[in-house]
Design a protein that fits this description.
Elements: H1 3-18, H2 21-31, H3 42-45, E1 48-49, H4 50-57, H5 61-73, E2 78-82, E3 85-89, H6 92-121
Helix pairs in contact: 2-5, 4-5
């Protein structure tokens, strides 16, 4: 399998995991930093416990744990145990990769549209 196929497969697994509304809500929550207008350290801002996420999104802790496992398997989040708590976060590099994926696709689509318009005019 080529590197291209592996990248596509990994992204497909990520997007499949995000196709569930609870997982998307959890992922979206983990991508936010602090309350707007506040200043926070990135290290502190991107770590949340399972309990904090469940309370905020009104999802049972067992359900949150299940969805976090799926997000972890898809490579979307990182987790670690801290005493009795499990912390989870998203690496900033992952968000940059996902952003780059969409930006490249947008640019490629715009390029194809331009080429098609030029062909039609000819």
């Amino acid at each position: 399998m080529s590197n291209y196929s592996i990248d596509i497969q990994k992204r497909a697994e990520m997007f499949k995991a995000l196709g569930n509304p609870h997982r998307l809500a959890i992922f979206q929550r983990l991508t936010t930093c602090c309350v707007p207008g506040t200043v926070c350290e990135m290290e502190d801002a991107m770590h949340f416990t399972v309990g904090e996420i469940g309370e905020e999104l009104e999802i049972a802790p067992s359900t949150v744990s299940h969805h976090l496992k799926e997000l972890f398997r898809a490579g979307l989040i990182q987790t670690r145990r801290n005493g009795k708590s499990i912390e989870c976060w998203i690496e900033p590099e992952l968000l940059e990769q996902l952003s780059g994926f969409f930006n490249i696709d947008f640019l490629n689509n715009q390029s194809e549209l331009t080429e098609n318009k030029q062909k039609v005019k000819s």
